[in-house]
Structures are given as C-alpha cells and as structure tokens.
Records
---
Amino acid sequence: MAQYQYITLREKPELMNLAAEWFHSKWGVPTEAYLECMEAYLKQETELGWFLCLDGGQIVGGLGVIENDFHDRKDLTPNVCAVYTEENHRCQGIAGVLLNAAVEDLRSKGISPAYLVTDHTGFYERYGWEFLCMVQGDGEPDMTRMYIHK
C-alpha cells in the first residue's frame, strides 16, 4: 500500500512549476493560467488553494480552487477545479481526501458553499456533493453539471 502525502501548495511552494505542468498535462489549460492562480495563493492574495497528493515526491493526484471554472454562472463561486488522479493510483480514495481537504480548508476560512462542474455522475455524491443545476461552459456547445457542497 502506497504511503501518500497530502499537502497544500503553501506547504511545498517549490512544487509550483511541477504542479502547474502536471495539471496542464492532464487538462490542456495553459501552464501560465495555473501558475497565475498558484502564485496568487502563495503570495496570500487569495485563500483559494491548490491541493496535491504525493507518492514518493511524485504528484499522483491534485485539485485546485478558483473563482470560476470556465462557465456562465459567475455567481456560483468558488469552484473546485482540475480534479485528477493518475490512473494507476485510482480507487484508493485520493480524490475523496483531496476534495474533503479543499472543502474543510474553505470552511475554516468562512467560505461555504463550494461548487464544481463535471460530466461525472455518481462520483462526487460519494463525498457529500449534490447536483445543483446545469451550466453553460465557456465555448462549449453542451450544458454541463454543476455540483454544490454545503
């Protein structure tokens, strides 16, 4: 059984460039967009953070919290984004630990509820998320699912 280490980027700021590249490789969003959000978090300009799961120093899972995850409901904020676990590390609860860490971190700062957009059904419900409504993704032809964690 792997010994995972769960951290915020503030705990290991030296991982910022690696984390930005890792998220970029998973989602195709420009590395610079991740770096901009991560730098604001590290400079304490925002409390919307970045959460990582490490296995021997390698990033095997992660997610971020941003104002808006590229959709038309700008009033539904903040958004958990970029949730990803490496395929060979799935089904071990990594995403659940990261999701709970993000929600608890926000709650400890007086920020609640949190939102996320996803095409998945049945996954986030396991971790206390509830379907809220359909939203229009920026430049997307189809509507996508918006979840809330109260």
---
Amino acid sequence: MEIGSITEDLIILSDDLEWLHINFFDSFKIIVAGGGLVVNQSGQVLMMYRKKKWDLPKGKIEKNESNKEGAIREVEEETGVNILGIQRKLGKTYHTYKLRDKWVLKETHWYLMDGDENSALIPQTKEGIEKVEWCGKKTIKEYLKNSYNSIQDVFDF
C-alpha cells in the first residue's frame, strides 16, 4: 500500500502494535490534537462549519500542554464558547492529510465537555471557521451527512 493511493476509507486492525507502528504510523508525521464534543445546559451540541463541512472543534496540542488542556484551549479559541468543565475522555480518532508534500496522521484526543450556552459564539475565521452553532439531535443528524467519518465516530463513543 502506498500513502496517497487510498481513495476510500481504510480500516487497519492488528493485535501487534509494534508491527502497526513499523508498517503504518512511521510513514507519517504525527500531530497530536485535542477536541471536544461540547454539550450545553439545554443538551445541545456545539458544531462548526469549516471547509464546506460540519465539524467539531479540535486542534494541535502545544508543547508543555496536556491533551486535556489543549483540547479546552482549542475549543474555546475556535468557537468562543466558555468551557465549564470536562465530564470524561471519549477516546481518540485518526485522520490523514497532506501538508507541504508530507503525509500527516492527526491523532485527536476527544473529551465530552460542558459548555456555557450563554457564551458569545465567535468563529475563528483565521482558521477558516465560518459558523458555530448549538445543535439539537435533528440538526446534528442532518449536519453529520456533510461531515467527516471520524466526527461520526466521536458521537458513537
């Protein structure tokens, strides 16, 4: 398998993590990120619109920052929401993209977060975020039709 030859989703299962690192992970530059499935007091979920798709807020963890701290910072920066706390870690997802002729594997650590519904939602336009919305179940279902598979996985945790 060559990186860049995959045109559909790829799922790799292995009981041998060492083999997986040697044969897959080491082919990429790895970026660790954190993000949030943010729920407000009314039970709505925070979603954002970027690059013509609906997404959840996430971003790169900085040096000397824990995954949890970075996830909170990124969610607040990208959306303007005030995070009141973290309920629990949900899990992690992986996705790939090309950055300056190098393949990147982004490992995103996801947290279930409590967000203040009274926060002024301000999309971080310099990151290409056009809209930020609190969404009910019906809207989420519709938005997930125009989202990334890894985001669906976050809702399934």
